[in-house]
Amino acid sequence: MQSKKKQQTGITALYCRLSRDDGQDGDSNSVANQKKMLSKYAKENSLDNTRFYVDDGYTGTNFRRPSFQKLLEDIEMGYVSTVVVKDMSRLGRDYLQVGYYTDTYFPEHGIRFIAVNDMVDSEEGENELAPFRNVMNEMYARDISRKVRFAHRIRGNSGEPLSQPPFGYMKSPENKKRWIIDPEAAAVVRDVFRMYLDGKGVETIARILQENQVMVPQAYWKSKGLSRGGKKSQPNPYKWCKTTVMKILSQQEYCGDVINFKTYSKSFKKKERLDNPPGNWAVFKDVHEPIIDRETFEKVQRTLGTTKHRAPKPENGEKSMFSDLLYCADCGKKLWYRTNTRNKDIHFFVCSNSTVDYRGTCSDRHYIRADALEEVVKLELGRLASLLRYDEETLSEILAQKTNAELLKEKRMLEDALQKAVSRNETVAGLYEKVYEDNATGKVTDEWFMQLSHKYEVERMELKEKIEVLRDKLDAVDSKQYHKDAFLAAVRKFMEMGTLTAPLLKELIDHIDVYETEGTGKNRTQRIVIYYRFVGYIELPDRAFRRSDNFKANTRQGVAVEYIPQPA
């Protein structure tokens, strides 16, 4: 759903490339021909908001092309949803780099990639020909992944549980493929169902469990020496949340059933698990001893289906672009994104540590409407953009004061080391591919292949670890360092587009502190402070402010809050 909405609102990038060598192929590869073909394809396939990116006279073996770099910049800012090329060669002729963009970079950024003549469309799933054309060194890993997935599918369709047992069950000591009841945890599960049938809400149940010092599932498993996935940062082992209670109430496994394939991954390169539609599940009933009888479970499901719960997100499931950026100015905790239960069009943020809404310690809500926040941030970025447009020297001087030469020097050293490690990793991958092909053709014996492949695999693992360490160090430097050109480029991107996107906000803003509203009636005001990446809070000169920049938001009928910019 999220990718479809992005396609409706983002740019459809029509990328054309022509090198001097391509000129010998006649008019078929001409820029004019490519533009004509791509425009026709976009129109016939309802791909709107098109924009051409053209590199005329640039080789496909080098990706440092002006328009291609411009395309990557727009992708990073979140303005591009689809990339369309005439064929794979127009994107590039270096198979390692082409494979990186088509198999890793575009999927990570939610970009739909289409190569018209090669019949490649990432929305239709992985194309079997593209990997062979571009990423020969990944054939081995892909083959292993298929075998694992095939074995996984066979096990799942035979009724063997593919997941860890849920809270209330544990693996049988005699047969690890069989679940048995964990008496201590099962008693908690039964209490949750009993309290819900007695008329208590999920938030009330969570509060009762917390007051009774009942450990949450993650803490319980840890106390038993079991390692399970999930959030481990909760310092209070007894603080239940309503989502955990909801999950327990909705798990059919408590009836004694095994349900496989509830999640899936799009690609062997992406570890993220996505929810699978129920129609694709494999359900095996009465496999193990039930904790909750089926009649009770179905009764609870009917009640859950008719109960209106406060929605943490809009109905389409999308997060706000401000999520993870807002913090309470008083307690320092994150603000959570919520939807009004009566009016689904109203979205807002509140302190996650509030005593009013949650079982926290912060006495105020720090309520702020999402639409009001967006307008305030747009106004603030507009002031930055205006100062950049009319007095770039002053803004550059303000930003230059934040620069730390030592941090920049350290970053350059880390970047050089990272580039060498990545380059060597690509070289080792090529060597591995060559010895694999030589073994397949009989040029290299199996014994020699095993020795060399082991050597290359060990080096690749060491390089992978080194690359991760270097990237972590770079992230640590980036959190302290200011890079003026990147910051100004992001402000200019806002000037060009005039709209906010999540990638643009993350490029510009480190976090935003939200204070509690002050005053009453028409005199209510609320302070928010924006801390930018690399530079922190920026005090703009008085001339950057105008009275018309003030913004007043109607939070509810008869109540308005004014946001007044604070000059230096």
Explain what this protein looks like in three dimensions.
The chain has four domains: about 1-135, Resolvase, N-terminal catalytic domain (Rossmann fold, 3-Layer(aba) Sandwich); about 170-255 and about 290-305, no CATH class; about 310-405 and about 480-568, no CATH class; about 405-480. Helices cover about 45% and strands about 15% of the residues. The chain is built from 18 helices and 19 strands. It has helices at about 1-10, 30-45, 65-75, 90, 95-110, 130-135, 140-155, 185-195, 200-210, 215-225, 240-250, 295-305, 370-390, 390-400, 405-440, 445-480, 485-495, 500-510; strands spanning about 10-20, 50-55, 80-85, 110-115, 120, 170, 180, 260, 265, 275, 280-285, 325-330, 335-340, 345-350, 370, 510-515, 530, 550-555, 560-565. The chain has a five-stranded mixed β-sheet with strand order 2-1-3-4-5, with helices on both faces. Strands 12-16-17 form a three-stranded mixed β-sheet. Helix 2 links the parallel strand 1 (about 10-20) and strand 2. The longest helix is centred in the C-terminal third of the chain and has 36 residues, at about 405-440. The chain is globular, with a radius of gyration of 28 Å. It starts with a helix and ends in a 5-residue tail after the last strand. Mean pLDDT is about 80; it is low at about 1-10, about 135-140 and about 310-315.
